[in-house]
Amino acid sequence: MASEIEEEIAQAAKDLLINKHVKRLTVKDIVEACQITRQTFYYHFEDIPALFRWMFERDSARTLLEVRSLHGGEEQLRYLFVMGLNALPYVKKGMSGNYRDELESYLSQYIQRLFGQICDEEGLYQDCTRFEVKLILRYHSQAILGLFRDWTEDDTKNLDQIVHTVFRILTEGISPRGKNSEKVVI
After folding, report:
1. Are 22 and 16 in contact (CB under 8 A)?
2. What contacts 24+ positions apart, CB below 8 Å, involve 34-43?
3. Are 58 and 122 in the same domain?
4. How far apart are the C-alpha atoms of 155 and 54, rounded to whole Å?
5. pLDDT digits (tens, 9 = 90+) for 69-101
6. Highest mean pLDDT among 3-17, 29-43, 134-148
7. Which of 16, 133, 162, 163 could pair covalently with 22 via S-S, beta carbons 3.0-4.6 A apart?
8. Residue 179: pLDDT above 90?
9. What is the rounded distance in angstroms from the CA atom of residue 178 to the CA atom of residue 180?
10. Cβ-contact 117, 109 below 8 angstroms
11. Residue pair 140/170 in contact by the 8 Å Cβ criterion
């Protein structure tokens, strides 16, 4: 279970990125905001990327609990999209700062882990090799990241349609030729 100080440090980092518009988040910024010593920060986290990793892991566990309480895959996927959209301002701010590579890597791993746990629980991709499953999860996590990277207000208005289409892609596939068309040989 997370300690109060870890939660306070995480909240301070979020606040600095969003409300204080800090461009280059530093340990100094965080300890000043929390009114703690550098030693206290380093007791809990090795560095700022470790703080981000901890935040993603904590949020992953919370998100998975919430997803499990929902019924139906499409409803679960919609919840994940809403969670992603709520986190988007923080992620975009963090991506524009000095920890872009670490954040992008953690976010990708976070999405892959969530999808992986859901696939395991739902018994999906049982006929696939481990290599194929890892590739599928990597592919889908990058696709979701790509959607969020270019997200617009119109996308928010069409959230249900986007979730439905992504769910169809994930579960049944969408043929580029349609159901009844024949393959064209060139």
Report:
1. yes
2. 34/5, 34/8, 34/9, 36/5, 36/8, 36/9, 40/5, 41/9
3. yes
4. 30
5. 888 888 888 888 888 888 777 777 666 666 777
6. 29-43
7. 16
8. no
9. 6
10. no
11. yes
Cβ(44)–Cβ(3) below 8 Å: yes
The verdict on 150 and 177 lying in the same domain is yes
Mean pLDDT of the chain: 84
Count up the domains in the chain and report the number: 2
Directed axis angle between helix 73-95 and helix 159-171, to 10°? 110
Segments forming the whole domain that contains residue 33 = 1-45
Q: Are residues 22 and 112 in the same domain?
A: no
Give yes or no: residues 2 and 77 share one domain: no
Q: How far is it, in rounded angstroms, from Cα 173 to Cα 16?
A: 41
| CA distance readout (Å), 93 to 21, 22, 152 | 8, 9, 16
Find the range with the poorest average confidence among 48-57, 60-69, 147-156. 60-69
Q: What are phi and psi of 103, to 5 degrees?
A: -60, -45
